[in-house]
Amino acid sequence: MQNGHIHSHGDGGGGDREGSISLSGAVAMGTGVMIGAGIFALTGQIAELAGPLFPLSFIAGALVTALAAYSYIKMSNAWPSSGGIAMILQKAYGPGTVAASASVLMALSMVINESLVARTFATYALRPFGQETNGLLLSILALCLIVFAYVVNAAGNRSVSTASLVMSGIKIGGIAIFAIAALWVSGFGGGAFGQAESGFEGMGFVASIAFSILAFKGFTTITNSGGEIVDPHRNVGRTIMIAIGICVVTYLLVAVAVGSSLSIEGIVEARDYSLAAAAEPALGPAGFWFTVVIAITATASGVVASVFAVSRMLTMLTEMKLIPHSHFGMTGPLRSHLLVYTVVLAGTLAVLFDLTRIAALGAFFYLVMDMLVHWGVFRYLRRDVGAKAAILLAAIAADGVVLAAFSWVKLKSDPMIVIYAAIGIVLVFAGEHLFLQRREQNEGEPS
């Protein structure tokens, strides 16, 4: 059986080296995943739950994420590794059902994120042609983007880091230009912010933070690639805080720009392409096209960076013998197989589910996994890594409150997605328990 100490600076034979991702490359990769999902896929859904106060939901999400990042930074500083979250869980809980299941939930939430962002890419790409509700075209385009992400990732670390850096620059600059221009034209008093706050519910606002947290969870991409970042003991924590900081500013700018241009009803109606919808009244046809191009760039780079992180995490779980693996007749290193599995799973989800349900499923899986990480660090590792108990408990409490509010709101509006999420979580835990039991029997190890 694997022991608790894992020195996984490699990638299971993928040929990538320690220190192959610079500080700026890592920040670009983190913001690449975050901004691809957060702004384009989730703004409308956050506004639907939070009402006119929806820009504040991003600030609340950033605060909860900063609390959450504390565990990951402390652990990554102590033990930087590729697939960092799996390593954190294994060190906390040992190589058993809890570590394996929580790691699988994390991987699933990342794959769900890829399909969410791929669908968003397709929605924006089809919007100029009035085809954004065409289910077949949405599925085909989303699938094409996921295949493109596979091709870029199959080329290795350097191409992912370079592509992320270039695309992140275009994206963040473009989004800032859109937001400032839209605000210049619309001012602060119009749109959603000119509406009376009637019908606003505190529970809806707290629930909306679940989606805001999803908009920031790309910071975990940095943790998962920790072993490949230059000087990881110093740079993993710095990278995470810089990336969260850049995203807070970007999200706030965009939220205020969208809110000043569209009413809450308008944002909700156009929730899958709210930035493009906001650009048209504020900036005319040129603004609309500019936003569509930026959205396509942002979502494409988000999927590329996310596939990179998930394939590493799954490679590490396989090397730790925490998930079953079959080569299905494929040759080449382990990571190239898991790249294929990641892409197949993300593609399947992108074809089968709509944006709202994909996002909700991702939020449930991520929050449960996040609470297990903080509890593991609090219970077993805080003295080893020098973490403060109060911050860890605050992170668990914040996640718990948001999860409870989100579950309550979803039970009223879409109870089936809560049931799907619960079944998914139970199946992951039960499946892992059986797999690990069988593995022990096969290896003739004592339980």
Automatic annotation (TrEMBL):
The keyword Transmembrane applies. It is found in: Membrane. GO terms for molecular function: L-amino acid transmembrane transporter activity. InterPro entries: AA/rel_permease1, AminoAcid_Transporter. It is a multi-pass membrane protein. It comes from the Bacteria. GO terms for cellular component: membrane. It holds the Pfam family AA_permease_2. Keywords: Membrane, Transmembrane, Transmembrane helix. The chain crosses the membrane at residues 21-47, 53-73, 93-113, 133-152, 172-193, 199-219, 240-268, 288-311, 332-352, 358-378, 390-411, 417-436. PANTHER family: AMINO ACID TRANSPORTER (PTHR11785), SOBREMESA, ISOFORM B (PTHR11785:SF512). This is Amino acid permease. It comes from Sphingopyxis granuli.
